[in-house]
Design goal:
mainly alpha, two-stranded parallel sheet, Tyrosyl-Transfer RNA Synthetase, 13 helices, Rossmann fold, binds iron/sulfur cluster, elongated, 2 domains, 5 strands
């Protein structure tokens, strides 16, 4: 069985960038509760600044978003990372075989550390915890974006080093491979930077049609289209990218023609986009409302997922301890 594992930070309600860039793909990949593990990585979230009450809310909102977006507890195991203590346990074990230099070379660490006066150790060892997340379940397929490929290489290196030291006859940990998410990277509504909550340029997955329209109406388009009669270049417009993600192929073609020939104004184009988005997002909003109407549903699903994940994780740690001389 080639198991899948992937994690997402508890950043609150998903925005459409997260949905198109990762979660929509997860929904397609669900193969069964024993073969597909998805995790809200709340231990990783502790490496950033946060308010305690806020983290509690963001964890819950992320779980609701994932279930509303289509993760099905009958076809995958969904859980909070902190509910399975073996993640942190295996991370410590891996700390003992991971060279410091490898961690210091990680691009994400260098980027983040360069912007901080005092760097916490958790930021440096973040990829070790990631390796533990994946290898705890012997996952070999890891859906990731390009930005996580270097961390995954390190997970393979850690698996190799541990195997070489403690399982040289027959490798115990597999070497996980990236399952690159088909790139659907959306720019934010400002058209300047990647869609990101911290930049305030997002559309929430569960926002109402009215809220979405209030954001789409003033959103950045091709600056060449000053007047309705000015022709534009759809490929440089973020609204066109959103059409490609949400509209039918025939609509995308109509948008391109009407943009180039100035057949439509941008507001008209955005109204068509709002309709397409409603077609995709309305069922997700409805599911979120159904979930919200059953107060214990999310807790029950996540607890059940954690119980299943712990069963696998406990067996991994038993084998690891045995091979490392930590049992009698
Ligand atoms: Fe963008 Fe549509 Fe305006 Fe073209 S018509 S610039 S694709 S919003």
């Amino acid at each position: 069985m080639s198991r899948i594992f992937s994690g997402i930070q508890p950043s609150g309600e998903l925005h459409i960038g997260n949905y198109l860039g990762a979660v929509q793909n997860w929904v397609r990949l669900q193969e069964g509760r024993d073969s597909t593990f998805f995790c809200v990585v709340d231990l990783h979230a502790l490496t950033g600044n946060y308010e305690v009450a806020d983290l509690r809310r963001r964890r819950h909102e992320m779980a609701v978003s994932l279930l509303a977006a289509g993760l099905d507890p009958e076809r995958c195991t969904l859980f909070f990372q902190s509910a399975v203590p073996q993640h942190a346990e295996l991370a410590w074990i891996f700390n003992t075989v991971t060279p410091l230099g490898e961690l210091e070379r990680q691009t994400q660490y260098k980027d983040k550390a360069s912007r901080q006066e005092s760097v916490i150790t958790g930021l440096l060892t973040y990829p070790v915890l990631q390796a533990a997340d994946i290898l705890l379940y012997h996952a070999v397929r890891v859906p990731v974006g390009e930005d996580q490929v270097q961390h995954l290489e390190l997970s393979r290196e850690i698996a190799r080093r541990w195997n070489a030291r403690f399982a040289s006859d027959m490798p115990y940990f597999p070497e996980p491979q990236p399952l690159l998410t088909p790139v659907r990277r959306l720019m934010g509504l400002d058209g300047q930077a990647k869609m990101s909550k911290s930049l305030g340029n997002t559309i929430g997955l569960l926002e109402s049609r009215e809220q979405i329209w209030d954001k789409l109406r003033p959103a950045m388009t091709d600056p060449a289209r000053q007047r309705k009669t000015d022709p534009g270049t759809p490929e440089i417009c973020n609204i066109y990218s959103m059409h490609r993600a949400f509209s039918a192929e025939s609509t995308v073609e109509t948008v391109a023609v009407n943009c180039r020939t100035a057949g439509w104004g941008c507001i008209e184009c955005k109204k068509v986009l709002a309709d397409s988005m409603e077609g995709v997002l309305l069922p997700i909003r409805r599911r979120a409302m159904e979930i919200g109407a059953q107060p214990s549903y999310v807790t029950d699903v996540l607890e059940e997922g954690a119980t299943r994940a712990r069963t696998t994780a406990q067996e991994t740690m038993r084998q690891v301890y045995e091979r490392m001389g930590l049992t009698d």
